[in-house]
Amino acid sequence: MNQIGFVLLSVLAVGSALSVILQRNPVMSALSLVVTIFSLALAFLSLGSSFVAVVQVIVYAGAVMVLFVFVIMLLDLGRREPFKLTGVGRKILGIAAVAAFLFQISASLSAVGVMGARPPEPLPPGYGTALAIGRSVFTDYVYPFEAASVLLLAAMVGALILAKRRI
Amino acid sequence: MSQTVVVDIVRIAVILGMFLGCVAYLVWVERKLLGHIQIRVGPKRVGPYGLLQPIADFVKLVSKEDLTPPNAHRALFRLAPAIALVPAILSIAVIPFGGTIRVLGREMPIGIADINVGLLYVFAMSSMGVFGIALAGWSSNNKYSLMGGLRSSAQLISYEVSLGLSVLGVVLLAGTFSLREIVAAQHPIPFVALQPVGFLLFLMASSAEIARIPFDLPEAETELVAGFHTEYSSMKFAMFFVAEYANLVTVSAMAVTLFLGGWNGPFLPGPIWFALKTAAMLFLFIWVRGTLPRYRYDQLMRFGWKFLLPVALLNLLVTALIVALSGGEG
After folding, report:
1. Of A8, A109, A158, B216, which has the most beta carbons under 10 Å away?
2. Distance from CA of B149 to the nearest CA of A (A)
3. Residue B52: strand, helix, or coil
4. ∠ CA(B1), CA(B6), CA(B11), 5° rounding?
C-alpha cells in the first residue's frame, strides 16, 4: 500500500518535473514545479516526516513559488520560443552533463540499495516531529544552520543593493 | 475496521456539511448586519427575514451563463476557482471543535484529524489559496484582473510573514503545533490574556490574509472593477465567493482555537462554546467591514512591513525571553 503510493508519488514528481522544462508557457512551468513540490511533500509525509512535509509546502510552494508566479505575471513573460542548443560543443557538454547525472543517480541508488532490497529500519520514537528537528538543528547542526542564515542575510543585503542603488 | 471507516466518513460529512452551511448563512448574516449598520434592513423578501436568500443566490448563480473571455488561458481559467476553494475547505480538517464524544462505544475527538503539525498545516493551506487568486487574475487576460491578482499576491506574501510570527508566541507558550494540545494548554487561562499583542497582530494580519476590509485591495471595486474575478461568472464566481467566506470562517475558528481557549468554557458543552466564540469573531469581522474604509495600496504595504512585522518580531522576542527565563518547555 505504502509502496504503491510512493511509486505513484515518484511518477508524479518526475512527470511534473519534466513538464517544468517542457512547457512553453512560464506560468505553466511554475505550476508544474508546484506539483513537483507537492508530490515531494507527500512523499516526505509517507516517510513519517510530517514537519518537513508541511514546511516544504509552506516555504517552497507557498512562498518561493508564489513569488515566481508573481514575477512572471509582473514582467508579463508570454510564450517564448523553446530553448535550442546550438553548436557541437554545447551539445557534447549537454550529453556529458546528462551522463554524469545518470551516473550519480545510479551510484547513489546502488549505495542505499534499490527499494525493498533492505528491510526498512523502524523509526525512532518522535522521528520527524518539530521537536526532534529543532533539537538537531540547534545542537548537532548549529554551525551549518548559522552559516546558512548568514548566507541568506548576505543574499538579502545583496539583493537590496542591486535593486536600490540610492537608499 | 470497516466500521471505523464508516464512522470517519460520517464524521467528515457532518463537519463539512455544517461548515458549508455556516458559510452559506454567513453571507446572509453579513448582508443583514451590514444592512442594519447602514440603517437599512438587508435582505427580507425571500422567506421570513430573508432566510432563504442564500438558496435564492445559489440558484441564481447556477442558472447564469458561464462566460470565458475569448483570449483567456482556458485551462488555468477553469482551474483557478478550484485552486482557491479546495485549500479553503481543507483547512477545517485539523480544527478541533470540542473535547471527546462517545460514538458506538468508542471515544473520539470532535473534529476530523489531529496531526502534530496542525497549525503549520493550516498555514500551508492558506498559502496555497494565493495561487487561485493570482492565476485567476493572470488567466483572465484582463488588465484589471491582472492588477488584482498581482496586488493580492503581493499583499498575501507580505502579511503571511506577520501572521506566522503573531502565532509563534502561542506555540512557545503551549510548546506544540497540535491545535488540540494548544486548546488543552489554554485551560483555565486563554492565551488572549497572555498574548494580547499577538491576538491583535493575528486579527490584523489575518484580515489582510483573507482580503477583508480595510485590506480588500485585491478587489477594490472603485479602482479595479472587481479585481481578480472581474471576468468570472456563474458557478466559477460562486466558488471564489464561497472560498472567501470559508476563509473567513476558518480564520475566526483559528482565532478561537489559538487565543480564545477553543472549546473550553464553563457550564455549556464544548462545541457550543466553540460555536459561540466563532460567531463572536465573525461578528467582529463583519462589524469592522461595516465601519472602516479601505487602505490605499502604499499604506497597506507600509503598515504591513514597517509596523506589523517589527511589532510581531518584538512580541516573539519578549515571549521567548519570558518563556526561557521562567524555564518553560524544551
Report:
1. B216
2. 9
3. coil
4. 125
Q: Which of chain B's residues have a Cβ under 8 Å away from the Cβ of A24?
A: none
Instruction: Look at residue B182 and tell me whether its pLDDT is greater than 70.
Output: yes
Residue of A nearest to B147 (CA): A74
DSSP letters spanning B226-255: TGGGTT--HHHHHHHHHHHHHHHHHHHHHH
Residue B330 has a pLDDT of 44
Q: Which tens digits make up the pLDDT trace of B213-222?
A: 777 766 666 6
**ipTM metric:** 0.78
**What average pLDDT does the segment B175-182 reach?**
84
Does A77 lie in the same domain as A138? no
pLDDT confidence of residue B222: 66
Taking only the tens place, the pLDDT of each residue in B287-302 is: 888 888 877 778 888 8
Q: Which residues of B283-297 are buried (b: 16+ CB within 10 A; e: fewer)?
A: eebbeebeeeebbee
pLDDT category of residue A84 using cuts at 50, 70 and 90: low
User: How many distinct structural domains can be found in chain A?
Assistant: 2
Which chain A residues touch B330 with a CB distance below 8 Å?
131, 134
CA pair distance B275, B262, nearest whole angstrom: 9
Residue B237, domain extent: 3-326
Q: Is B266 on the interface with A (CB under 8 A)?
A: no
| Counted domains in chain B | 1
User: How far does the CA of residue A95 sit from the closest CA of chain B (Å)?
Assistant: 35
Q: Are residues A31 and A89 in the same domain?
A: yes
* pLDDT(A83) > 70: no
Range of the domain at A96: 3-120
Whether residue A107 sits in one domain with residue A156? no
Residues of B in contact with A31 (CB under 8 A): 76, 131, 135
The reply to whether A86 and A146 lie within a common domain is: no
CB contact under 8 A, B76 and A27: yes
Nearest CA in chain B to A132: B330
CB–CB contact B157 A130 (8 Å): no
What's the mean pLDDT when you consider all of chain B? Answer: 82
A40 shares contact with chain B (CB less than 8 Å): no
Q: For residue A35, give the nearest of A55, A52, A63, A60 by alpha carbon.
A: A60
CATH number for A80: 1.20.120.1200
